[in-house]
Amino acid sequence: MNATRLSRRTFLAGAGLAALALPARGLLALASTTPVTVRTLNGTLRGEQADGVNVFRGVPFAQPPVGALRFRPPVPPAHWTGERDATRFAASAMQAAEPGIEHSEDCLYLNVWAPRGKGPFPVFVWIHGGGFTGGHSFEPVYDGTLLAQAGIVCVTVAYRLGVFGFLDIEPLLGADYAGSANNGLRDLIASLQWVQENIAAFGGDPSRVTVGGQSAGAKLTDILLGVPSAQPLFHQAISESGGAERVWNRAQSADVARGFAETWRSLTGQEPSSLLTAPASALIAPQVRFIQQWPRHFPLRAEIDGTLLPLRPVETIAGGGSRGKRLLIGNTREESSAFLGPHPAHDAGAADLGNLPVDRFAEVYRKYRDIYPQMNEEQLRIRAVTAEEYWIPTVRVADACLQGGGSAWMYRVDFPEGAGLLRGFAHHSIDIRLFWDRPSPTDENAAAEAALALQMHHAWLAFLRGEVPVLEGIGPWPAYRAETRPTLVFDSNIHVEQAPQEKELRLWDGVL
To answer: Is the per-residue pLDDT at 160 higher than 90?
Structure first.
């Protein structure tokens, strides 16, 4: 690997977000706090009040999935007496070691930022990204203070990652573990159930819940749209750089399980039964080795198990799973510049493609020169891999949402990075600091980025309130229609494009 290129796995595991841990507008660096309590169904929480916002961290929404509960569906949290301290974040889910961050198998906790007052306020449940193997609910960029100050209850949730949340153990350990590849998905559903049962105590309105996320968090959001049992738990969704393709069928999940078992045996000399009792940390090195060796990218995925996920998510969404739901969805123009280069770029391989084998992708890629004769090879690769991993899956979810009786609003972020290796590219995750209104204060585009972030932040706020966002110079954000695909482009000059990249879109018909 070239030393100047960002590793996809490093970026998705959180290093790419480190640069986004920027100070929020209007927040005090050392805000004074006062204790505040709230009574939930399981007991009393003691959080803190700062900047006019009530904050509760490390709130359990399920029992620790340890011991006999490893690889099992989440179990509702236990009750407690007295006041439970909710002023500190809980440990992050098990993943590759990171300096200064605690990881634990005991990870099923959420964090709440709530406005002062009785409400009821709209609720936003945020799912972090990280490639299904990394990430944290407590990234500084995800601080919900600004949202709460604007009248939104913000909830950031954790879920089991990697083999703990997305490995089908049934082929290795028997029918008692059927559906274990969907445990990470079940964790998210458990968090949404907790929200339905408890969020009113924080001033939230359980009838106005938006679920959303970015990257893997967006993909999980889109998959949740295809989970019938999850439909009553939220009424709208926000998908930033997502898509609903990140699932296996049962046969593929079983192949992955057997592949992981071989890696486990080769590294530990033990049979898969030892996975039940091995220290949680002992599963990480085999997981990393297995991912590196597996011929397809992202081998640890949710599964079409016939129960939780009866069909491919887009089929369920199009079949009525989105009826009555609103969806805000989009991606950035050059997502894959973060992983392919840009200096120097490299040919797309199995480690770069989230949805297709290399040979199938190559068939489509060969046609890109005809569509974009003005682009160089670096630009063509970035455009095509961005389409394969993010843009085409995003369009498919939006189309399915309309077919299923929902409504959608499509966007694309074209605003480029102003400094560093990715200067000039609207790369993967640049939208995070825009939506959360954490613009970079250091690059040459600082003033333009600050203005754009404010516009984008207010558009998202309007959507969270159930409104149609109105943008300066644009007016109401036009709803998505399959025929013309109106897309709001966030750049220094915000504008609407009709049927963007139409010739490119046609290249993917029947492919993805």
So the answer is: yes
